[in-house]
Design brief:
Strand content: under 5%
Number of domains: 1
Radius of gyration: 20 Å
CATH topology: Farnesyl Diphosphate Synthase
CATH superfamily: Farnesyl Diphosphate Synthase
Structural class: mainly alpha
CATH architecture: Orthogonal Bundle
Distance between the termini: 19 Å
Largest sheet: 2 strands, antiparallel
Helix content: over 70%
Order of helices and strands: HHHHHEEHHHHHHHHHHH
Shape: globular
Number of strands: 2
CATH class: Mainly Alpha
Length: 337
Amino acid sequence: MGTVVQLKNQINDSYFQLKDSVEEKLVLTEEKIKSKLSSDVQLVQKMTDYHIETGGKRLRALLTLGSAKLCGYSKGSRDINLAACVELIHSATLMHDDVIDEGAVRRGKETLNKVWDNHSSVLIGDYLLSRCFEMMVEDGNLEVLKLLSSTSSKIAQGEVLQLQHKGEVDMLEETYLKIISAKTAELFAAATKVGAILSDAENKEKDALEFYGRNLGLTFQIADDTLDYNAELKLFGKKIGQDFFEGKITLPIILLFQKLGNDEKKILSNIFNKKLRTKDDFNEIIALINKYKIIQECYQKAQHYINLASNSLSVFKDSEEKNILKRLTSFSLSRNF
């Protein structure tokens, strides 16, 4: 047991190592976000202040800063501006997400739509995106502008695709991967590629970091979706069952449906067809997930993307930044926060 905890601590250290390696730039990124979100409209200021206070891992900003450092970017503040930009896109999508999912809690605090209302939350999300586009134009690089605007479009399409397949327990795994690729992995890919673009890296390095980010994002989302049904990880502080109670169809449910006989499929379908699901319903699903060893299968699939992400960094010469990014692939699967 000591070895497992030691391994988990080592893996989680990779996140803090990345944070430490770009700490000064991350502080400036936070300041940039605050300054960009300031507004003369009182409600806008209140809501953006509240949003900033909720914090977050700032993983996408860290990936932009870390990738830029890996590619040799040192002078100037473009990495700070674009890291802030990537975070603003992420924050805007979370606000819109919470409205669509009728989410009430995020990062242990009430969501904006819960404290205020849906209308205000959608508009604040739009405000964040508009600020983000201002920053892209200020940067002046057409490749960055094209990449981040295209990414924003793909995220929105991913949201619609997820909405289109809401409640479908027989959803194809291929459809699920399309959804998480658009909703999550595209922004990870953009975050890492931006770091390479502003460093004037070669195309093979840009492509490698984009591939790294995309596969890291897929791992991250599969792990997140799996944690929702992994009762054994309660001790690591993850609240389980949120996706289930919101009626989201994610990889554990898709893989479970494939394994079930007709009678169990009906039980699963009936549970997800309900307007509200109960704790007893959740326990029933957990029992089926344990019976068919679904958690292990999800992690095996995630491991595939970990390998792809890790191997893509081979085009870079050995450095501390490369090692940190490589270890971060395992953090996305085994994190405890």
